[in-house]
Known about the structure:
- It is a single chain.
- The protein is mainly β.
- 0% of the residues lie in helices and 49% in strands.
- It contains no helices and ten strands.
- The strands form two sheets. A six-stranded mixed beta sheet has the order 2-10-9-4-5-6, with no helix packed on it. Strands 1-3-8-7 form a four-stranded antiparallel beta sheet, with no helix packed on it.
Amino acid sequence: QVQLVESGGALVQAGGSLRLSCLASGRTISNHGMGWFRLAPGKERDFVARISWSGIITSYADSVKVRFTISRDNAKNTVYLQMNRLKPEDTAVYYCDFLRPDNDPFGSWGQGTQVTVSS
Length: 119
């Protein structure tokens, strides 16, 4: 059974930083692209960032480019999201997921981790 456990979310002030982690079990991440997504109140789940299986290719939503960095440690079966210069509009529950070859998420959503940015 595939499980994804996100952690690292917190309440921070605007301009602050957080590092999110996503630990996978039941499937190795080394064969998959991985992505981070977020769900804000009243909105649909949005793409945030993705990283290729090798870690060489990354892609970001325009709203987080330059501020966020996705990385992975295949040996630890873990994906990270370093978030800098946080803004109130980054407030959301953040989820990670395995990606299909077309970069769509598998839908193996975990419980997510809450990020709240105060102004």
